[in-house]
Amino acid sequence: MESSSKPPMIRNLAVDIQADPVLGPDISYGPEGTVLCFPTRDDRFGRITFEKLDALRMCRGEYDPYKRAGQFSWVSIVENSPWLIDRYDYESRHYNNAYEFCGDVDEMLRDFSHYFFSFHDEFVEAIAAGIWIEAADEPFSEQRVVGDHPLLPLPENCIAERIQVGELICQVRQSTQPSEQLLSNARLCSQPLLQFALELDGEADVSWRLNLRQRNGKPISQLVSFLGRIEAEFDGIACLDDVRSHVEKWMQGVCERRRALGK
């Protein structure tokens, strides 16, 4: 793919949490993911987690490497990013249909962004599908993500109903966040609308998800299967009736495979 002829431009991304203007961040790597920890302006502890992190780099410097549109914000997105195009070209050339199990490498062009975080005399850049910024009164425990983080499975106390196909029962877990909050949070990363967990062998693990995200400033809902493939996409906030047939078809396939295995 050819690079855009437009120059890269930093576009501000408004967030409620503000990083300390003097103290810098720490990057932590671990089996549960990569996180960016930083002190906040109000003497709390901040953390950034990433949705589908692809690449990360930290550089010294007090001057922006790209032209900035509008007023300063410590969290920004680099539009017309040559780095994002380079990463897409690399993944497409070497992995293509084997990309991230789902084989849809073009999602990097549709839904990934080049994020730019400004700190005192240094900046951090990341290629990812989304970010989540949170703050707490105590330091975060390494990379562990807990609580109501939007990238975690919804708890069982969020079960709205159960779907039965053959001998299989699937929990339908529904977010309790109001629509206005979900739409606002979807500016940063995917937000759970519905999650589907089959009740098998005494366990119920989330397999499919209906997520809300923003693309080019507009909300879209994506039904995502276990390996990350987008099975269906809808404008705005979708509901169970929109995806029920897809979920029941998946459940029917599971039923047939289990019968073939004698289960």
Summarize, please.
The chain is α+β, with helices and mostly antiparallel strands and 263 residues long.
Describe this structure in words.
- There is one protein chain.
- Strands 5-9-8-7-1-6 form a six-stranded mixed beta sheet. A six-stranded antiparallel beta sheet has the order 11-12-13-14-15-16.
- The longest helix has 21 residues, at 240-260.
- It is globular.
- It has two domains: 9-136, no CATH class; 156-260, no CATH class.
- The chain has helices spanning 82-94, 107-111, 179-185, 240-260, and strands at 9-12, 26-30, 33-39, 45-51, 55-60, 67-69, 75-79, 113-119, 122-128, 130-136, 159-165, 168-174, 191-200, 203-215, 218-224, 230-235.
- The mean pLDDT is 93.
- By secondary structure, the chain is an alpha+beta fold.
- Strand 13 and strand 14 form a beta hairpin.
- The protein starts with 8 loop residues before the first strand and ends with a helix.
List keywords for this structure.
263 residues, alpha+beta, 6-stranded mixed β-sheet, 6-stranded antiparallel β-sheet, globular
Furnish the topology, listing elements before pairings.
Blueprint: E1 9-12, E2 26-30, E3 33-39, E4 45-51, E5 55-60, E6 67-69, E7 75-79, H1 82-94, H2 107-111, E8 113-119, E9 122-128, E10 130-136, E11 159-165, E12 168-174, H3 179-185, E13 191-200, E14 203-215, E15 218-224, E16 230-235, H4 240-260
Parallel strand pairs: 1-6
Antiparallel strand pairs: 1-7, 2-3, 3-4, 4-10, 5-9, 7-8, 8-9, 11-12, 12-13, 13-14, 14-15, 15-16
Structural class: alpha+beta
As laid out across the biggest beta sheet, the strand order is 5-9-8-7-1-6
Q: Tell me about the biggest sheet?
A: 6 strands, mixed
Overall shape: it is globular
